[in-house]
Amino acid sequence: MPAQPLFTPYRMGDLDLSNRIVMAPLTRMRARSDDHVPTALQAEYYAQRATAGLIVAEGVAISPEGFGWADSPGLWTEEQVRGWRRVTDAVHAAGGRIIAQLWHTGAISHPDLRGGARPLSASDVDPMQISVTAAGRVPTVAPRPMTKDEIRRTVADYARAARNAMVAGFDGVQIQANYLYLLAQFLNKATNLRTDEYGGGIEGRSRMIFEVVEAVLDEVEPAKVGVKIGPMHETGPFAANDETLPMAEYAIRELGGYGLSHLLIMGNTTDFTGTPLEPLMGDGMFRHFRPIFRGTLIANTDMDAERGNRLIAEGLADLVAFGRPFIANPDLVERLKNGAPLAEIDWTTVYGSGPKGYSDYPALQPESV
Question: Does the global pTM surpass 0.90?
């Protein structure tokens, strides 16, 4: 294997990628606030970063019910589809590949984002996190448990959003089943207290994610569909428990049977010391799940060129996702390849509006590389 495998081509599903660097999804709050349509500014931003082998677009709400972060984009209306078509056309014109991340925030949404209605989730357990509303960051509230009819409609919403993504010109989709959002709320025994077929043990709590995957696969071929999933240790009801790892193992093993294009797994974003996930710290996450999922595995969190090259060389990952470094470095691939310094992020502008701190970060000049 070459000394820098990050910069070698790779075939993921039916996509030929020019390198193994993935731009991880990054919510940036630049969509129109009234109708959640992506803008020409987002087209410019993503096109600037098209040298990544693959871009995973920011989380895209699948429906009004799934919307739960101020100024983030959607994928349920024709105008939103047209807005995303501008983005995908710009990325393709720059030689890049881009997939949509399908997102339902569940209990992380807030009544202020839903006309006063409580957000929907598996059960009425307050996740004890933060909602991002137009007025600022506020504590989450207890959601309303979804009826079985609402679960069925939500599954159908995922399928519609996947179909819309393909109409919008995306090269594929990624189902967000990680972190704090709806599908993770169904998987977690602390946030899913249901006694019907969508609750109870590990198999019941994972029923919804498999229904979502199967509904999406009815619209999009498996070679264009991936999933973001993995065990995490957060606060409140999302603190790791005795079933966090067994649930992730079961879900990931079952997902391996669908012929998906990829699985994106994040390493630890918090300290796992003293939790059931302690053995998964550092490279332990990828070492643990590599034998369980035999398809394309994308590793994410705290990556640099040295670590990314090593993970690929050791066979622990096929692709490596970089998130924050892409914010201030539109030419990240070139900088990593040449060992050039990385620009620093202006954190005051990460979430906001307009080009400042978004599309105005310059690439290195040739003599600086």
Answer: yes
